[in-house]
Amino acid sequence: MKRGMLSAQAVGLLLLVPPPLFWAGNFIVGRAMRGEVPPFTLSFWRWAVALCCLLPFAWGAMRRDRALYWAHRWRVARITLAGVVAFTSLVYVGLQWTAAANGLLLNSFIPILILLFGALFFGQRLVPAQVFGLALSFAGVLTIVLHGEWARLLALDVSAGDLLVFAAMVCWAFYTLWLRGIPPEIDRLGLMGVQAGLGLLVLGPLCLAERAAGLVPSWSGESLAALAYLGVFPSVFAYLFYTLGVARVGAARAGLFIHLIPVFGVALAVAFLRETLHPYHGVGIAAILGGIACAVRSR
Fold first, then answer.
1. 230 pLDDT tier (thresholds 50, 70, 90)
2. Of 41, 40, 47, 118, which Cα lies nearest the Cα of 80?
3. In the predicted structure, residue 148 carries a pLDDT above the cut 70
4. Residues 6+ positions from 61 with CB-CB distance below 8 Å
5. Does some domain include residue 11?
6. CA dihedral in degrees (41, 242, 102, 269; nearest 10)?
7. What is the rounded average pLDDT of the residues 104-130?
8. Which of 79, 182, 219, 267 ranks highest by number of CB atoms within 10 Å?
């Protein structure tokens, strides 16, 4: 019994590694596409591609669990609005104005918000190891984002883009916590299909309003390739793995893995943008991994 529980925990932790990688790519692509595809249009077509990928595999579960969806309709609606509609749209809108460093810094607040909201609204108890691990990993994030120069923290300006990205982080924190309320008998792949479908019903009018305002996308081979990436990896695989990981290890531990986004962001920048890896990157990554190790070992 105990060995089986440990195995489930290990699987859950492994499932939480790919989502930060895919979401790091999401920030890079979202920032790169800001001049070609308007934010609500990008969010709509991202989830349209995701739904097309999900339906062949999720349709059977969606039909089978439709009574459960209705029985828990408000929970399903909450996680859809928070995790699919609000989070992705606010990130893409915010990336129109905020700098990359600001976006990464604000993104690192997600584990803090999960622990804070969990303690305030969901009765979750914080243990010292979680608090220490959170502080250590957050210090690692700041080291990477600030290039090892802590004086830069005072120079970060708060803009409309910063506030929008921060609002997206709040939405993701609640999405993570609300996921725990979804009964385990609901198939997670089918649930993803339902979320994508419901999200499109909300994003559709927003996309049309954006177009009516004169914001028309400029489609090209590059933008279509970016859309394909957004629709498959950050939308399908990342959400599915994250949902399964939350179910196995809990919201607080799962949220801490968000700190891996800037780690993977540095790796992607080195691999695709040929940027140089500096000593502060190594210090920051070591602190992040050390913080995650402290938190996941806590009970």
1. very high
2. 47
3. yes
4. 187, 189, 190, 193
5. no
6. -90
7. 79
8. 79
Q: Is residue 116 part of a domain?
A: yes
Distance of CA 41 to the CA centre of its chain: 19
User: Per-residue pLDDT tens for 172-210?
Assistant: 999 989 988 899 899 988 999 999 999 999 999 999 999
CA distance 228 to 235: 10
Say what the pTM is.
0.80
* Spatial distance between the Cα atoms of 59 and 66, rounded to a whole number of angstroms: 11
**Whole-number pLDDT of residue 22:** 93
| Contacting residues for 130 by C-beta, under 8 A, at least 6 apart | 115, 252, 294, 295, 298
Is 143 part of a structural domain of the chain? no
The three-state DSSP-derived secondary structure of the chain is: CHHHHHHHHHHHHHHCCHHHHHHHHHHHHHHHCCCCCCHHHHHHHHHHHHHHHHHHHHHHHHHHCHHHHHHCHHHHHHHHHHHHHHHHHHHHHHCCCCCHHHHHHHHCCHHHHHHHHHHHHCCCCCCHHHHHHHHHHHHHHHHHHCCCCHHHHHHCCCCHHHHHHHHHHHHHHHHHHHHCCCCCCCCHHHHHHHHHHHHHHHHHHHHHHHHHCCCCCCCCHHHHHHHHHHHHHHHHHHHHHHHHHHHHHCHHHHHHHHHHHHHHHHHHHHHHHCCCCCHHHHHHHHHHHHHHHHHHHCC
**How far is it, in rounded angstroms, from Cα 85 to Cα 17?**
23
Only one residue has tokens 């934010």, namely 39
Which residues, in sequence order, are CB contacts of 28 under 8 Å at separation 6+? Answer: 265, 268
The rounded distance, in Å, linking the Cα atoms of 43 and 200 is 9
In a domain, 285, yes or no: no
Domain count across the chain: 1
- The residue segments making up the domain with residue 113 are 18-126+157-245
